[in-house]
Design a protein that fits this description.
Strand content: 15-25%
Helix content: 40-55%
Distance between the termini: 58 Å
Number of helices: 16
Strand order of the largest sheet: 4-10-9-8-7-5-6
Shape: globular
GO molecular function: adenosylmethionine-8-amino-7-oxononanoate transaminase activity; pyridoxal phosphate binding
Radius of gyration: 22 Å
Structural class: alpha/beta
Protein name: Aspartate aminotransferase family protein
Keywords: Aminotransferase, Pyridoxal phosphate, Transferase
Bound molecules: pyridoxal-5'-phosphate
Organism: Gluconobacter kanchanaburiensis NBRC 103587
Family: Belongs to the class-III pyridoxal-phosphate-dependent aminotransferase family.
C-alpha cells in the first residue's frame, strides 16, 4: 500500500489533509493554515515553531489553572494507577465521583440536592432537558415541555443543546432548533436598548416580553428557562441592571424551572465562585463544566434541587430506572482532577486572587473603551471581558463588513503573541484565573498597540 504520509510532511500539512475541525470552514481548511499548539506553560502556549502566546481566552474559556499545573497531572496519575475507569450505572459507584458530588453540592450557592455527571457542557445541557421533560411527565404535566432561552445564548451543539443555543450559525443547515425551543431577546443593552431607555427600563421591557411569551404559549406548556449568568460565546454580555431581579419572580409565578448554565461562569470567572452569586440568581439546576477540571480532562455536571429531583426519583422508581447516562460520565480520573482543582482553588485562595486581579483587568479593559475611537463598548465582569469594535462610535456601526474589523485586530494581536477570541465584531478575553496584574498589562498593552495601529491605518 502506498504510504499516505511521509517524514517530510509537517504537522500543518497533515492537519490540512486529515483533520476536519470544529467551528471551521472545512473547505478553506484544506489549504492549511492551522496553528499547531505544541506545549503550554502557565498562561502561555507555544506553537510548533516555538512561538510563545499569552492565552488570553484560556483555551475555550476553560483552562482556569493554566497549562502546566503539576498537581492536576499528579492527581490524574494517582487515580489512573488506582482505578482508571469505572462507572456509576446500576448502583455501582466510586469514590472520586461521590466526593466530587458532595463537594459541589456543599459549595453550591443555593440549596441543591443531587449531582449527575456527564462529559461536556453540551451533554450536560441535553441531560438537563431530558430530566426536565421526564419530570413534567412524572408530574402528570405532559404538555409542559417548551424551553425558553435567549438569542445570542450559547449552550452547546448536541441536537437539544444547539436548539437552546440562540446563535443562527449553530442552527443553519442543521435543521435546528427543534420545535418547542423559544428564543427571547438577548439582554444586550448596547445593541438592543432603545434610544433614551435606561438599563432598568430595558430589563423591564425584556422581562415583559418573556412574560408575554409565556402567556401566549400557555404557562402550562413552558417547562424551563435556560441562561448563562454572563453570555460568553454570544459576545460576553453582562446582564443589565434589574434583569435577574425582575425575571425570577415571573419564572416562579408560572412554575418554570430556572437553569443556570455556569459552563463558562462557574469556578471564579465572574469574581464569585459562581456567576449565579455575582448576579443574585437562584437556579433550580446548574450546569458545570470547563473550569471544573480546568479542561485537563472532559467532565461536566448537572446540579439539581429537590423540587427537580423528587419527581424524577418517583418516575424512575415507577419505570424501574432513570434510563440515561454516559459510559464516561464522571470518569474517576476526570473526577479526581476536578477534586484537585477545588483543592487548589481553596488552598491558594484563588478567589481572593481573582477579586484582586480582576479590578486591574476591568480597569485596563474599560480604559480602552475611553481612549480608542474603535471601541464602541468595553464590557465585562471579573476575569471575563470584551471590546465591541466599531468605526463610528456615535452610530455604533462599522464601515467594514461584519466581523472584519475585529478579525483584523485579532490577527494583529495574534502576531504580537496574544490569543484572543473574535465573535462578530467583538474581541473577547477570558484568561486563566492564575493571571497576574503584570500579565494583564501584557494583554492590554498589546491590544492598545493594535487598536492604535488600526486607527492609523483606516484614518
Ligand atoms: N454552555 C456554555 C455556556 C458554553 O460556553 C459551552 C461551550 O463553550 C457549552 C455549554 C458547551 O460545552 P461543550 O463545548 O463542552 O459541549
Amino acid at each position: 500500500m502506498e504510504k499516505i504520509s511521509n517524514d517530510a510532511d509537517t504537522l500543518e500539512m497533515l492537519d490540512a489533509r486529515y483533520l476536519m475541525h470544529p467551528f471551521t470552514d472545512a473547505r478553506a481548511n484544506l489549504q492549511g493554515g492551522s496553528m499547531v499548539i505544541d506545549r503550554g506553560e502557565g498562561i502561555f502556549v507555544y506553537d510548533s515553531s516555538g512561538k510563545k502566546y499569552l492565552e488570553a481566552v484560556a483555551g475555550l474559556w476553560s483552562v482556569g489553572l493554566g497549562f502546566s499545573e503539576r498537581r492536576l497531572i499528579d492527581a490524574a496519575v494517582r487515580q489512573m494507577e488506582k482505578l482508571p475507569y469505572y462507572h456509576t450505572f446500576t448502583k455501582k459507584s466510586h469514590a472520586p465521583q461521590i466526593e466530587l458530588a458532595a463537594r459541589l453540592i456543599e459549595m453550591a450557592p443555593v440549596p441543591m440536592s443531587k449531582a449527575f455527571f456527564t462529559n461536556s457542557g453540551s451533554e450536560a445541557n441535553d441531560t438537563a432537558i431530558k430530566m426536565i421533560w421526564y419530570r413534567s411527565n412524572a408530574m402528570g404535566e405532559e404538555k409542559r415541555k417548551k424551553i425558553i432561552s435567549r438569542k445570542r445564548g450559547y449552550h452547546g451543539i448536541t441536537i437539544a443543546a444547539a436548539s437552546l443555543t440562540g446563535i443562527s450559525v449553530d442552527h443553519q443547515s442543521f435543521d435546528l432548533p427543534l420545535p418547542g425551543f423559544l428564543h427571547v431577546t438577548a439582554p444586550h443593552y448596547y445593541r438592543e436598548g432603545q434610544e433614551g431607555e435606561s438599563e432598568d427600563a430595558f430589563s423591564t421591557r425584556l422581562v415583559n416580553e418573556i412574560e408575554a411569551l409565556i402567556l401566549a404559549e400557555g404557562p402550562e406548556t413552558v417547562a424551563a428557562f435556560f441562561a448563562e449568568p454572563v453570555m460568553g460565546a454570544g459576545g460576553v454580555i453582562v446582564p443589565p441592571d434589574g434583569y435577574w431581579e425582575k425575571l425570577q419572580p415571573i419564572l416562579k409565578k408560572y412554575g418554570i424551572i430556572l437553569v443556570a448554565d455556569e459552563v463558562i461562569c462557574g469556578f471564579g470567572r465572574t469574581g464569585c465562585m459562581f456567576g449565579s452569586q455575582t448576579f443574585g440568581i437562584e437556579p433550580d439546576m446548574m450546569i458545570l463544566s470547563k473550569q471544573l477540571s480546568s479542561s485537563y480532562l472532559p467532565i461536566s455536571a448537572i446540579l439539581m434541587n429537590d423540587m427537580v429531583f423528587e419527581p424524577i426519583a418517583d418516575e424512575s422508581h415507577a419505570i424501574g430506572a432513570f434510563a440515561h447516562g454516559f459510559t464516561n460520565g464522571g470518569n474517576p480520573t476526570a473526577a479526581a482532577v476536578a477534586i484537585e482543582v477545588l483543592n487548589i482553588m481553596e488552598e491558594r485562595d484563588l478567589m481572593a486572587h481573582i477579586k484582586d486581579v480582576s479590578i486591574h483587568f476591568q480597569a485596563r479593559l474599560r480604559a480602552l473603551g475611553m481612549s480608542s475611537t474603535l471601541v464602541g463598548e468595553a464590557r465585562g465582569v471579573g476575569l471575563i471581558g470584551a471590546l465591541e469594535l466599531v468605526t463610528d462610535k456615535v452610530a455604533r456601526s462599522s464601515a467594514w463588513p461584519v466581523g472584519q474589523l475585529a478579525g483584523y485586530a485579532f490577527n494583529l494581536l495574534e502576531n504580537k503573541g496574544v490569543i484572543a477570541r473574535v465573535m462578530g465584531d467583538t474581541l473577547a478575553f477570558s484568561p486563566p484565573l492564575i493571571i497576574t496584574r503584570e500579565q494583564v498589562d501584557m494583554i492590554f498593552d498589546r491590544v492598545e498597540q493594535v487598536l492604535v495601529q488600526v486607527e492609523n491605518e483606516i484614518r
